[in-house]
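Figure caption, in words: inputs first, then the predicted bound structure.
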Amino acid sequence: MRRVAITGAGQTVHASRRPDVTLGELCLEAIVPAVGESGLAWDEVDAVVFGCGPDLLQGVRNAYLPELVPLLGAAKPMLRIHTGGATGGSLFQAGATLVASGWARAVLVVGAEKASEPGDVQAVLNTMWNPLFEQPIGLNAINMLALQSVRQMHVHGYTLEHFAEVTAKNRRGGVRNPFAQLRQEVTVAEVLASEVIAWPIKALECCPRSDGACALVLVGDELAGRAPAPVRLRGMAECTDSMYIGDRLGDSLSEYIDATTLRAAAHDAYRQAGIGSPFDEIDVAEIYSPFPSAEMKACEAVGFCERGEADRLVETGALELGGVLPVNPSGGPMCANPIGATGLVRIAECVEQLRGTAGAHQVDGAARAIATSSGGSSQFYTVAVFGKEAP
Amino acid sequence: MTLRPVEVRGHLALEEHWDLRHRHALGRAGEAFARGVERGAIVAARCAGCRRVLLPPRVFCERCFCDTELFDFESREGELLSFTVVRMPFAGSPPTPFGIAYARLDGSDTALGALVEIDPDQADGGLAIGTRVELAILDSGFGMERLRYRPVR
Ligand SMILES: [Zn+2]
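Bound structure (zinc ion present):
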């Protein structure tokens, strides 16, 4: 397999509503700077990999694909990918595979969402589930994560305060990040006092619905030198779990609150990257965590702590900017969640960190970074590990 | 489909209402389950290889890669493995507050999600993981609407 580098990264300022642009126009705001950074001419890009969430979120079938196709001139191939919240992570894995295989020299990867367009996002997300067994019992993105949080509280002893601490930490990140949508601090007390949406999840613990886009340019070695500071892919993996949540509760092979398949993906990515002790060797993590309990679960699964011990990471401040291993210094998905782009934003943030250009949320001297994504009812997981140096 | 122009924060937008009919096939296992509920039964699947009992039923075991057989599952009691109490409604949701519970019925190897009776005055609905619940089949509604977990007192 050929080595893969990221030579261009662009993201929009994420917002609650962008009534001034179509989805395609929003994508351009991320694509133009990404291609510009890469040092490539437009027609040197060999293919586009595009993703957004369910068509119902845009209310347009094959959401604006035709707007993006002519970008690169005639006769370039295009893929669309949708793995729910993991879409951005899957887009990256697909684009990187096209480059690694030698099929393409340069691939433009684009993720985007306009979650402001439907009247009721959670009603749209409810349609993701099986119409006979799951839709009628009221599953949506919040309720599905609430089922996870309750079980973490019971099995691991995590508390409402732990979840509120993670929320406050991420919101501090949003204050520092000019691309974030939520840029106001909240206190632990404010989180705890906010209304319950689905027990035990509070209103202030829910990610916002966002309009936003993100784009990356992925290239092989021969084009990596066109950009001043290429970021290198060191390892990546994607793992998928069983369909039904109930298959993953108290099961020896797959446990909902352990993110068993995220654990497997991380293990594989670390093996490729030569990482034996992730907590010691990784400098910064951008984790797909639309809710605080998801961040704690993911920290365990990617090996930052033992199973059920993410509460210690929260209590000791290890995950804060300035802590031992900053997690989501950008504020993460809790401060902006343009669904189809969110997983790519995690990677774009890793790129900024490794270049040293993350600004107010820069982690000093960051040389190794990890990005994750998660989608479906916690079924689709991706992990990618990046470094400044080629493997 | 109807489209009409509306103003959204100073920008012209087109508001669209979809009124599309879909007819979702229930599939072999799903149809057996739905017809089972109509006659007061819970249809589960048993894997011919690993002998796991699977709820919801499905026609293929993803661990053994072999067919399953469908049968009437007798047990109506089990252990609560997770739950939530939903306070915020969305379009088409059950009336709030409502509870969602996942319980593993005795003799089953997976947990079945269903609506659960709650104490609406308690934040956690008065539910607790690890407690015993029973699965009732109500007289009205279709499919999962008719199933209801209740704490065993
Ligand atoms: Zn089997």
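The mean pLDDT of chain A is 95.
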